[in-house]
Each structure stands twice: as C-alpha cells, then as structure tokens.
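Exercise: predict the structure of this protein bound to tryptophanyl-5'AMP.
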Amino acid sequence: MAFVERVFSGVQPTGNLHLGNYLGAIVNFVKLQDTHNCIYCVVDLHAITQPVDVWGGPAELARNIREVTAAFIAAGIDPKKHIVFNQSQVAEHAELAWVFNCVARMGWLNRMTQFKEKAGKDRENASVGLYDYPVLMAADILLYRATHVPVGEDQKQHLELSRDIAQKFNNDFGDSIRKHGGNDGLFFPLPEPLITGPATRVMSLRDGTKKMSKSDASDYSRINLTDDADTIAQKIRKAKTDPEPLPTEEKGLEPRPEADNLVGIFAALSGRSRADVLREFGGGQFSSFKNALVELCVAKLSPIAGEMKRLVADPGHIDAILIDGADRARAIADETMKLTKDIVGFIHRR
Ligand code: TYM
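Solution:
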C-alpha cells in the first residue's frame, strides 16, 4: 500500500536567514503548498545543539523562532491551510528520536560530514546533541510519516540517513508491524529529498567555493532576508567576480564559481533557467549584470523584509500561529507515537 504523500521540512532559528535558505528551501516550501499537505517546522531543538554563543541565548532564541515563522508567512506559506509550528512544542519529536537512537548505528553517524564541519577540530567538546542531530531530523520527518522533504543540497546526506533509519526500523520490527496491521510490514515511508531549482547550493558572495551560511563571519558573504535595499545593492556590487565577461553558454560557467553563483541566483529569483539568463546577459560585463541582479533582488526580497518586520512587531500573533500549528501537529504525532509504541512493545494508555 502506498503512503499518503505529505511534505515536511524544517529551518533552524539560529539567526540571519539568508538568500540560500530562501532559494534552496523556502521558495520550494511555498510551491509545494499547491499540490501537497505540508508541515513546516522551526527546529528550535536543533538550534541548541550548537554552543550557546552561536544561537545567542534564550531571548535571542525566542526572537529568532518568531523571525523564521515570520519569514515563512511573509514568503507565502499559509499557516491555516498547512501546519507551521516550532519543534519543542511537540514533545514526540524528542521521544521518537530516542527510539531512533536505538535503531541508528554509530558507524552511520560517524560518516556525517556536517557534524565534522560543525564540530571542527575540537570534537571532544562538541555536544552529544550535535552528533545526534541527524537522528532528531529523521524523527522530525518520520513522526508525520512524511514522504517528501524539500531541502538544499547540504541536507542530502541527512536525508539518506533518515531513509536508512526508516528502513532499519521497518526491517527490525517487520513482524510486529504486520501484526499491528501496518502497510505490508512497512510502517515508516522512505522519505524522498526534493532538491530542486537552479539554486540548491547558493555560495558565499566572497568566495564561490564556500556555501552561503548563517555563521560566516563576514556579513558581505550573504544577503540576509532582512537586509534593506541599500545593503543588498552594496553586497552585490562588492560580490567577488572575475575579469572575464559573462559566458554565452552554461558550459562557460563551469570553471567560474562566482559567475556561476550569481547567474544561478538570478535564474532562481526570476524563475528562469541559467541558459536563458545567459542568452540575455552573456558576452556583457559583470557591472551591468550586477545592476540587473540588484534590481531583481530588491524587487523580490524587499516586500518579504517589509512583511517580516510587520509580523515580528506583533509577537502575540506569531505565538498564536505556532500554538495552533503545534496542536494540529501533535494530533498526527500522537498517533504515530502510539503506533510506534505498540510496534516496539511498550505498554501505554490508548
Ligand atoms: P538550516 O536551518 O541550516 O537551513 C534551512 C534550509 O536552507 C537550506 N540551505 C541552503 N540551500 C541552498 N544554499 C545554501 N547556501 C543553503 N544554506 C541552507 C538547507 O538545506 C535547509 O533546507 N537540518 C536542517 C533543518 C532540519 C530539517 C529537519 C530539514 C531539521 N529537521 C527535517 C528537513 C527535514 C538545517 O540545518 O537547516
């Protein structure tokens, strides 16, 4: 029996939502609303896996949870038709993560490149939560038995781990799943990553070989969703390029990461292909292309920044949206958790 299609994705409230988050993830969240039931989560439990100075402490965390929620809504996510909530309000995320901790293997987690990058050289001092981060991510998705997960390229490995966990759970408990009437021995779907569009990996504006990231020390490396028009213009004008004119064909972008990145951003923001953008700008200088990119970026991002500002000015309204979303998420989560308990053999109140 096929699983009902459902979309789940999450964004961490760690500050500085940027163009990479927007083009790699949020734009696709918005599109999927037309075809799927969607659940979009502000993953605050994930945020605290990093040292406190990275996520900024309690007041900053609460502010950032509201800001990500505001970004979702300002970008066009409808919290009435779909579900928007913050992870820590649904305790079942942590509960299912525990069961998955006992399914996932150390060897699998040892291969996670994001842990290696984030922990850096001082691995002994990384939190256990940072190591376990991808297991919680699998619980986020599978708690809703979600089938499709829109993410940027950097989350691909984590999604593969989620599939491995789902598969091992289904195998380990196959007989019990069948006994409890589940889907021919399949309880959890193997979630599919949706990594789509021309900007699945937006790169730093200062270095085309590095990912645009919230944690880069230079604010000139990224365009934040809250940047005003002047700041956007300055950042794009200062963005690293090379001395050659833009190529006329996509192949010409291959050895030129900075040019490739800017053309990819233009394509994603305008809903065009890279080839189409090069048909218009190929052969020209970067300066005129950059002017067009500034105009496009400001036209697309300014209304979102304006709406985010309006929304965060009323925290009570945002909190009410998150509470309502959490109530609806919990209803689904509770059902999955009860079935999981039956399958594993835990005794519980029905
Ligand atoms: P986070 O908060 O780091 O990023 C949110 C989303 O933005 C994408 N992204 C990018 N896409 C393109 N170019 C970039 N430079 C770029 N930087 C970030 C990310 O791929 C992501 O889709 N682990 C997740 C959060 C998470 C999650 C989940 C996602 C927790 N549970 C369950 C999906 C399903 C993360 O760190 O996202």
